[in-house]
Here is the input.
Amino acid sequence: MLELRPTCEHCNTALPPASLQARICSFECTFCATCVDTVLGNVCPNCGGGFAPRPIRPALDRRNGNTLGNHPASTQVRHRPVDTATHAAFAASLQGVPPEQR
Here is the structure.
């Protein structure tokens, strides 16, 4: 089950469970859309993968209790600002490699 992490790992912007700005990689590294687009260049600094919009967990119980109320979002903040110079070199090494081939 997704953790639904509460903030962007880089800029620490709040990303509540219903945020349309949350982006995750396949390891659930969580960043805001602005950081993914302007700082990270769609390259996860932790694994090198790409990002996708984080799904929204249903607020209402429409089936089998699968709701935010029964499966709450994480409250653990993982604020680990990215060293932009190091990341730029890392992202450059992956330039031209589509996320699905990384």
Observations:
- The chain has one domain: 22-96.
